[in-house]
Automatic annotation (TrEMBL):
Keywords: Folate biosynthesis, Lyase, Schiff base. Pathway: Cofactor biosynthesis; tetrahydrofolate biosynthesis; 2-amino-4-hydroxy-6-hydroxymethyl-7,8-dihydropteridine diphosphate from 7,8-dihydroneopterin triphosphate: step 3/4. It is an enzyme of class 4 (lyase). Its EC number is 4.1.2.25, 4.2.3.153. GO terms for molecular function: dihydroneopterin aldolase activity. It catalyses: 2 D-glyceraldehyde 3-phosphate = 4-(hydroxymethyl)-2-furancarboxaldehyde phosphate + phosphate + 2 H2O; 7,8-dihydroneopterin = 6-hydroxymethyl-7,8-dihydropterin + glycolaldehyde. It comes from the Bacteria. The keyword tRNA processing does not apply. Signal peptide: none annotated. One of its GO terms (cellular component) is cytoplasm. InterPro entries: 4HFCP_synth (IPR007565), Dihydroneopterin_aldolase (IPR006156), FolB_dom (IPR006157), GTP-CH-I_C/QueF (IPR043133). This is 4-(hydroxymethyl)-2-furancarboxaldehyde-phosphate synthase.
């Protein structure tokens, strides 16, 4: 189950985050940087206010990749349930030295490594992190922008401006296979939430989206509540049972009118596909068109939490394409249909996959499936 982590500056904001429904209270001072640390005294005061109702995590600080500095900062915050340690840009050997220096503390303190999507993330370090006894790994951004816009030359923009859904899916899968808890963060906004919930990380982390306006503002209970609702609604939809899966409505029938249709059409991507030898090791253009019957949208819907986003379809296509070579368009179409139907709000899907470079016209496959088709 995906939880909501709220980054707060101290006991006052911790109380606000708790009242808004945050699952994890994370301490950081955004004025000091992406992982600006609060003092041990602020940490102690916050732990007292939270009083065991939620886990409390603390960041170690924006630190150079020097073992002594990082070990000292982590040790000073061992009162927290988790300590987040940033893997800032540095040579691989320097990051490895920090990871191995933390091995001893990892026996007593639950450590979470923070990769930065805009700070040369090296996911081959996941193995060494698990080996050193880290409990978790997450991705954040160093630059804090909004809506994917760059800010102050720091490479700002949200998480998805830096890493594709496919890359994030790979991170979550690899970390989970290593037994690490996983988190995703980085100037996340409401429309990012359903897209990231599909990956089923252990938590999504927020700060900027919980504030009342500008980045320097305090967090706001109503914003926390809204985001908590969004995380809760989205996670219920991922893999939820479909009560109507067994009753396919006839096209044009009254039953079909009980659904709405969402679509992504003519999405053309370069990818490796084909069973012939000459189709291997090269990319060719493939066009995807997806239509899906979804639960009827409420007449009052005006919030991303109340709708099934077409981004989920686009992301599913892109993630499959990124997985590498596929021999058959049929396999691709079936995998795509299966993925889209794993969301309980989707009743039926029509997938068309066309190779555009093999002849004078397009060649491909079109399939129609409903959720029940993939069970058993
Ligand atoms: O760990 C989560 C971060 O504090 C997220 O902060 P942000 O939403 O401002 O990027």
């Amino acid at each position: 189950m995906t939880r909501l982590l709220a980054s707060v500056t101290g006991p006052e904001e911790a109380a606000i985050a708790l009242s808004g429904g945050a699952d994890i209270i994370d301490l950081k001072d955004p004025a000091q940087g992406a992982l600006g640390a609060v003092t041990p005294a602020v940490l102690a005061a916050t732990i007292a206010v939270v009083a065991g109702r939620r886990p409390v995590s603390a960041v170690a600080g924006d630190l150079p990749m020097q073992p002594e500095a990082v070990v000292g900062a982590v040790d000073a915050r061992k009162a927290a349930d988790f300590v987040k340690v940033g893997l800032f840009p540095a040579a691989r050997a320097e990051r490895l030295a920090v990871i191995s220096a933390l091995g001893e503390l990892a026996r007593d303190i639950r450590l979470v490594a923070v990769f930065f999507a805009d700070g040369d993330p090296d996911f081959t370090l996941l193995g060494p992190l698990a080996g050193a006894g880290f409990r978790g790994a997450m991705i954040d951004t160093i630059g804090k922008g909004e809506g994917g816009k760059a800010e102050g030359g720091k490479g700002g923009g949200g998480l998805l401006a830096h890493l594709s859904i496919g890359a994030l899916a790979g991170f979550v899968r690899t970390a989970r296979d290593l037994g690490l808890m996983t988190g995703l963060a980085g100037s996340l906004e409401a429309p990012d939430v359903p897209r990231l919930l599909v990956l089923q990380p252990d938590y999504l982390g927020f700060r900027g989206a919980l504030t009342s306006g500008a980045r320097g503002d305090a967090i706001d209970a109503a914003k926390v509540r809204r985001m908590a609702g969004l995380v809760g609604a989205g996670r219920a939809a991922v893999g939820a049972a479909d009560p109507v899966a067994s009753a396919r409505p006839a096209p044009g029938s009254a039953a079909e009118a009980a659904f709405d249709r969402i679509f992504v059409r003519d999405l053309v991507l370069d990818m490796e596909i084909g069973a012939y030898g000459h189709e291997r090791g090269r990319r060719q253009k493939v066009r995807f068109s997806v239509d899906a019957l979804i639960e009827k949208i409420a007449t009052t819907a005006d919030d991303i939490a109340e709708v099934y986003s077409y981004d989920l379809i686009t992301d599913a296509v892109c993630a499959l394409v990124e997985m590498g070579h596929t021999d058959l368009v049929e396999t691709l179409a079936l995998d795509l249909a299966r993925t889209i139907l794993s969301d309980g709000r989707v009743f039926e899907v029509n997938v068309r996959v066309e190779k555009l470079e093999l002849g004078p016209g397009a060649v491909g496959i079109e399939i129609r499936r409903r959720r029940g088709d993939f069970s058993g």
